[in-house]
Specification:
The chain has 574 residues and is an alpha/beta fold. It has 18 helices and 17 strands. The longest helix has 27 residues. The structure holds calcium ion. The site of calcium ion (CA) has 7 residues, from loops.
């Protein structure tokens, strides 16, 4: 059923103003019915001069919370991007410890909060990846090989396991653990963290942010919709905001690749990869580059004009079809058919597209693509879909992920991610996805901002899904509070032949607190010697420290026609 649109409330005068803004290069929209956005004030810092260990007693009264440890982390004990992290307090604990009536296991929302001695007045909630289950070090790092991070910038940073402990999907048997993983852990942690900050510094955070990539980007987008009152700025990387759908579609892709495999039986990533070898993936990537690289006026190994590339590149015509045996210089017709389906998006037997399409890009040959399409499809996605998302879940004992990936009824599985029953009263798409993700009036109207980034060669969550979200926001909310950055060549959150090292948090803070809207962001490749860690996918033909502008969608980086191909200043966002 179509949702009511602000378009119906638009007047011709407002349309004229919007057209004028577009003509002036504003490129953003404000629905006529929308209210004026308030400008939030800037955060001011404070100092914690006390003993970190004393915080264990200070936090003792926090509701539903047990503090397990409070310690000083000395300057330099932690180092990120070659930079020592300043002295801070680390406090660990858990919330809502309980025993499940469904599976009999113990659950709690484990967390750590890192509190700088010199605090900048801000709170950052760090969303973590995968199926959670681990309290990842709370530094608030984003992007590939980050050189900067929130903790170093003076934020108080919270990280959690989202309500369950351990790397297995077993928690999916417990209905409450599903809900905590989906959204409720964030809802429970946020007021506790703000109160802990207030107890430490004598005032709560002036400004609050949520940042993460992958499942962490999903958490960020869920916070932007469910908990918009609690957060002023949202940084969502590769947001899997339709995560259960993406996971089922990845299983469907594995099924297709298995039909091409040359090993007698498929039991591993290596087996599945025989259906489309590293050499054959590199062939496809090279043919995409041959057709699309220069569309941005620079043959530099990066396809900036993503949309023009999709129109220009033909898998059928631009990749040779094998007439004999596979030798790495061609694809068989069967391989082309599988790839065409994986890229356009697998469907149910009834013709419903399970997730979305993926764009052709220069990063398809990178190892990360194989890890997601051949590896995660046999290891992570079966447990996630069968145990955590499906209603009713499969039995955890004896669950065989490979068998499930290759043999389960995908139509039934797809139906199971929107199903409920008496025990599992919320479906996976309800607890995992942000409700009405393109309707963000709540965040916008209180002065909040959201920035989304996504690698074009991401093989598990499609950049096309983020593009669809942004275009939907443009229709349903307006985009004067939202920005979307595509990162050509980049895989899932980092890696790939790309400039994947960038800081989008600082521009987000400047937008929220100073009203300075982010424009182009300079990103760097992580070649030899990079302090944030070398990205082995960076081609040897690139300068190790190549830079490029990341452009706010729908703009793309185009070569100016003169100047070094290795520096961002030779490119303009158009
Ligand atoms: Ca190019």
């Amino acid at each position: 059923m179509p949702r009511p649109s602000h378009h119906t409330a638009r007047t011709s005068a407002a349309m004229a103003v919007a057209a004028l803004l577009a003509a002036c290069g504003g490129g953003e929209t404000t629905p006529a019915a929308a209210t004026t956005i308030p400008q939030l004030t800037a955060a001011t810092g404070a100092v914690f001069a006390g003993d970190c260990a004393s915080l264990q007693a200070t936090f003792a009264g926090l509701a539903n919370t047990q503090i397990t440890m409070a310690e000083t982390v000395a300057a330099g004990a932690l180092s990120i991007g070659g930079q020592p992290v300043a002295e801070h307090c680390r406090v660990t604990g858990q919330m809502h410890q309980r025993t499940s009536a469904v599976d009999g296991n113990s659950y709690a929302i484990g967390f750590e909060v890192r509190l700088p001695k010199n605090w900048n007045g801000r709170f950052l909630h760090q969303g973590n990846g995968g199926i959670d289950g681990s309290v990842v070090t709370a530094t608030g790092s984003t992007g590939g090989g980050p050189l900067t991070h929130a903790l170093q910038q003076g934020f108080a940073v919270l990280s959690s396991n989202a309500g369950h402990s351990g790397p297995t999907p077993a928690f999916g048997i417990d209905p409450q653990a599903r809900l905590d993983y989906g959204y409720q852990a964030v809802g429970k942690l946020t007021p506790m963290a703000k109160q802990a900050i207030a107890l430490t510094y004598g005032k709560g955070p002036d400004r609050s942010y949520f940042a993460g990539c992958s499942n962490g980007g999903r958490h960020a987008m869920v916070a932007a919709t469910r908990y918009f009152s609690d957060y002023d700025g949202i940084l969502a990387g590769a947001p899997g905001y339709n995560l259960p759908k993406a996971a089922v579609a990845n299983l469907a892709g594995a099924r297709l690749y298995a039909s091409l495999a040359t090993t007698p039986t498929v039991t591993s990533q290596a087996d599945l990869a025989t259906g489309l070898t590293d050499t054959e993936r590199a062939l496809v990537a090279s043919k995409v580059l041959a057709k699309c690289d220069a569309l941005d006026s620079a043959a530099d190994g990066l396809v900036q004009d993503v949309n023009a590339c999709q129109a220009a590149f033909s898998l059928n015509d631009d990749v040779p079809t094998c007439t004999g045996t596979r030798d790495g210089t061609c694809l068989t017709t069967a391989q082309k058919n599988v790839l065409a389906t994986v890229f356009s998006g697998p469907t149910t037997s009834g013709g419903v597209r399970m997730y979305t399409s993926f764009p052709f890009d220069g990063g398809f040959g990178a190892p990360g693509v194989a890890n997601w399409e051949f590896g995660a499809a046999l290891t992570r996605d079966p447990g996630a879909t069968g145990i955590i998302f499906k209603v009713p879940p499969e039995s955890y004992g004896g669950f065989n992920g490979v068998n499930f990936a290759l043999n389960t009824d995908l139509d039934a599985l797809y139906a199971g991610i929107t199903a409920t029953n008496a025990t599992y009263t919320e479906s996976a798409m309800s607890f995992m996805a942000p409700p009405n993700p393109t309707r963000m009036q709540g965040l916008r109207e209180r002065g909040g901002k959201i920035v989304v980034y996504h690698g074009v060669s991401d093989a598990i969550f499609s950049v096309n899904d983020s593009e669809a979200w942004f275009n939907g926001v443009q229709n349903d909310t307006g985009t004067d509070f939202a920005r979307f950055y595509r990162v050509p060549g980049m895989g899932h959150c980092s890696g790939g032949p790309a400039t994947d090292q960038f800081d989008l948090l600082s521009p987000l803070v400047a937008w929220v607190e100073q009203g300075v809207a982010p424009a182009e962001i300079v990103a760097a490749a992580r070649g030899a010697g990079n302090a944030g860690g070398v990205n082995s996918d960076v081609p040897g033909t690139w300068a190790a420290n190549r830079t490029r502008p990341l452009c706010a969608y729908p703009k793309v980086a185009r070569y100016k026609g003169s100047g070094s191909l290795e520096v961002a200043s030779s490119f303009v966002c158009q």
